[in-house]
Amino acid sequence: MPTKAQVIDALKGVVDPELGGNIVDLDMVSSVEIGEDGTVTVGIALTIAECPMRGQIENDTARKVRAMPGVTDVVVKTTAMTKKQRAELMSGVRRRARENAQPTQVSPLTRVVAVSSGKGGVGKSSVSVNLAIALQRQGFRVGLLDADIWGFSIPRMLGAQERLEADDETRLIEPATVHGIKIVSTGLIIDSEETALMWRGLMLSKALEQFLGQVAWGELDYLVIDMPPGTGDIQMALSRLLPQAEMIVVTTPQKAAQKVAVRVADMARRSHMPVIGVIENMSGFVCDHGDTYELFGSGGGAELAYDLNVPLMGNVPLDAAVVDGGDEGIPVTAGDPGNRAAEAFTGIGERLVELLPPAADETCTGRIAKLLDDLEIPV
Fold it and tell me: Could you tell me if 226 and 302 lie in one domain?
């Protein structure tokens, strides 16, 4: 008859394919009971009751244990984890992913913010550009990566003309610098913005990998990533390449956009990427007389934030100045900071710093420096 320790050792061969670890190391084995008749009962706590991997995990568990000498039968009992257990599990998974991640040129101290949406047409790129400028205007070192490989739009929105070239000595690509922001985009590599990129999924992931591993980003406080809409190859590659990345979800006020945006948040959860907040774009049109017209409905952003249990970071009004600024290469936050939309972006940038302060400030050295500064003690 096997011992409990031997059963647990055998269960290390059962892997949760979604989490990428065995169920013992993931603390998913809640109990092991061995009956006198050779029946082994194994309790397994799944992340959620409707886990799509449930059947595979149950079958693998039964097969591994049944192969042990002396076992006559196997009973697998699955339960759902508590919220606390699930949070501890995800924290451990992210930690292991961070430890095993391949090195990139992005410093571990750089805060990585993936600006995402469930579908196109919600103004995600406009948000990315203006958020990056709002952070730069606060005095932070900011990079902007256009990860929308097919649908790149960042170069035009920032008025970037510079082509990307590699340094002869380091062989690393040098980012373009516009409005004080380091930017990288496929739009700065191809001949013209009218050129269609006919790349398949693997090439998209490889492009992102190159932008992270072969670009001389230098020391950045924040790297804003303009993600493509949806939940495809780029999203999955980012969670693997930059496990420290955190997500902001952009939506518009109408219910349809809000419901679709839930999908990208679900993808983030499955990839162990925290969602730190929601931005509602195109919230309402304010006419010259001061009246507000909710052309796309209302409440979608607040409802999405409530569903995801994250803060609504801000509401950006519908304003032609945002479109004009993007077309002219002078984003509204840089060209007209007193504009209503620009003020909204500025507020969102300040809120982001509150939610996700620069990592350098969170180190021991950074905290000591802040303490000395507060006490007015010269360093």
Answer: yes
